[in-house]
Amino acid sequence: MNQKEIFDNIMSRTSVRNFLDQPVESEKVEMLLHAAMAAPSACNKQPWHFAVIDDRKLLDQIPHFSPYASMAKEAPLAIVVCGDLNKTLEGTEQEFWIQDCSAATENLLLMVNALDLGAVWTALYPLEERYRGMQELLALPSNLIPLNTIVIGYPKKKTTAKDKWDEANISLNGYNHQPKSFL
Length: 183
What we know:
By secondary structure, this protein is an alpha+beta fold. It has one domain: 3-Layer(aba) Sandwich (NADH Oxidase), CATH 3.40.109.10. It is 32% helix and 16% strand. α2 (26-37) runs antiparallel to α4. This is Nitroreductase family protein. One of its GO terms (molecular function) is oxidoreductase activity. Keywords: Flavoprotein, FMN, Oxidoreductase.
């Protein structure tokens, strides 16, 4: 893959909330998980666990405790990205699991896009009723904290990503210094 293809994959990634009634092939699920686990993590702790859900009864229950995940009722797949507190750093650095799992999530979302699938990131942590609901639904042990649910499937229609470039969100060598342009 060349630089332009990588850039185009990043720039075309978008949230998809409507899915075809078509299962995601196991080879693609495995590729998604490989991509997620290739993410960087603090001290290479890799404090993640990925709970894959393809059971219709389980998918249908997700919106009961995660109200913005209603699309799970029509999706064929969800992957819950969890932080494994048994694999984290110690003390206040334990919270790095959130960043580590977020990096894994972004890798997963980019791979979704590269495989012509669609997905949407729905948050669980830090809202206790949401992440505890997922722990209960999947009978996860207390050391696995669900960070988010990535709802995945084949998109019903092609969506166009928004251009989110905004130079106002950039400073150069200090907060009040705007770059003239990077492009």
